[in-house]
Each structure stands twice: as structure tokens, then as C-alpha cells.
Amino acid sequence: MPNGPAAPDSNGMTAPASRLDALDDQACFLLLATVPFGRVVATSGALPLVIPVNFTLDNRVVVFRTAADGPLAAATRGAVVAFQADDIDPVTRTGWSVAVTGVADPVVDASEALRMGQLGLEPWAPGQRDTYVRIVPGLVSGRYLTGSA
Amino acid sequence: MPNGPAAPDSNGMTAPASRLDALDDQACFLLLATVPFGRVVATSGALPLVIPVNFTLDNRVVVFRTAADGPLAAATRGAVVAFQADDIDPVTRTGWSVAVTGVADPVVDASEALRMGQLGLEPWAPGQRDTYVRIVPGLVSGRYLTGSA
């Protein structure tokens, strides 16, 4: 029950309870499309790796660019990864978080790479980042926090 | 070389190159202390789990609260996890990302739990979240992006 009864605080005041509601897949992708960057979560040398990247959505496929010989390309090639984004206002404590879990793979097909080039995705980070990586969504989960502050 | 030569764009204009610079541990913790929430990255059922939490720093130990019987408590108990936070301005494409990797453990010692209670950490999410989880930093990494936009 996300919206439980309000509990009195130490001053005896009753604040409205905060809520945490699940988002369906459609809402998750609508919200994802509103932010320009998220975080790729992968494993590197048995340790978690979390790297922010700017991205775009190609239908429901997350696409980002990276360096062909970099650690992010190595950690995502054929791997199950997560892509997470959120937008939470610390003042109202209201906002959302979405995570897409799926298999990541670099685009190697030439015509598909050409098509990716039309997405208008320019990497924010410096250096040659000409490899497009796609994360095809398997699991999608999202939650919306409504604050009590 | 983070600050490479500027390349002409498709209009022949030369923009200043963006930069990505490594942050030392001190800078990482100073920046972490400026944000109220970050993301716990763990593994659950062999899949990556990414959950935003509000947190505080107890010296260099990341502390957050969760439900004793929840998925976050289960996924972090004695596990190597990452805690990541960032603050990146999408307009200037300037900002930072910090990731702390270390072993997470719930606080079970009563006097330590009492001390945690003095940190003023109130969970944003609803429900009973009376377990304090500590992530003792092993690896710390951070990067500062200076945009070219």
C-alpha cells in the first residue's frame, strides 16, 4: 500500500505520507525521453562500473556513443547491462527513476551504423566516440516518488 | 590528453574541445557531499540493480537507510556495491560524476546504530526504513566534464 496513513512526527504533527508508485513500461520510456543523459551500469573486472552517458532512444532501444577501444565498449559488448536515469527534485522530494536492463551490443552493421548517424546523437565527452552501442530492453522498471516535504 | 585540439564542425567553425578530467579522492568526497542523493548499484538475481537513495557521508563512509526486509537490504548485505552520484548541467554539458565502490553492510551494532541516528538522515521514500547501510569505500573514482557547448 504505497499511500499509508500519515504518522505523527516527534512534534506530534501529522505530515502527508510520501508515496512510491510503480511505473508501467510506457511511462518509463516517456520519462526516459525527457532527459538527455543517464548511466550505464556494467561490470568490469568483477566490479560494478557506472558511467554517465548522453543517449537517445531509437524506439525503445537505448543508444549511446563511445570509443571503440575504451572501457565502456569493452564492458558492454554482449553483456547484460542496466541503463538508469532519474529526475528527482531534492526540495519537493518528488521525481522518478527508470532502469532498463538488457543486452548491450555495438552496432557493426554498416547500414545500421549509417542509420544511427541520423539520430543526431553527439557525444558530450571528448575524444573519438564513433561506436554506437545499443541496449535492447529486456526488463524495464520505474518508480515515481511523491514527496512529503 | 584530455584537452585535444579543437576540430572544425560541419560549418567549418572551430569549437573549444570538451574535457574529461580525473578527480582525486578528496575532490570526489567534497563533491559527493554537495548532493542529497545518489544511486546504489548492486546485483539481484544475477541482474544489475540500480536504486536511487538519499544518503549522508559519515567521514568517507556512505550511509543510507532502507527497509530491513526489502530488496535493497538483501542486495547489499555483505556485497561489493557501487554508490554513484553526479551533477551535470545538460545545457553547458559541464559537471561531475563520482563512484564509490566498496563492501556494504547493515549496521547491527546497537551503539553504532544509535550514533547513526544522530546523523539526521531521514529517508525520502515511504515506509519503515530503519536499517542503516554503510558502504565503506574501497575504490573511489570521479571525473569532471567540461563542456564545449
Pair of chains with the largest interface and how many residues each contributes = A-B, 41 and 41 residues
Distance between the termini of chain A: 20 Å
Largest sheet of chain A: 6 strands, antiparallel, barrel
Quaternary structure type: homodimer
What is the C-alpha radius of gyration of chain A, as a whole number of Å? 19 Å
Strand order of the largest sheet of chain A: 2-3-4-7-6-5
What's the shape of chain A? Answer: elongated
The beta-strand count of chain A equals 7
Beta-strand residue fraction of chain A: over 45%
Order of helices and strands of chain A: EHEEEHEEHE
| DSSP summary: helix tally of chain A | 3
Helix content of chain A: 10-25%
Structural class of chain A: mainly beta
Mean pLDDT of chain A: 91
Return residue spans of chain A where pLDDT drops below 50 for at least 5 consecutive residues.
1-7
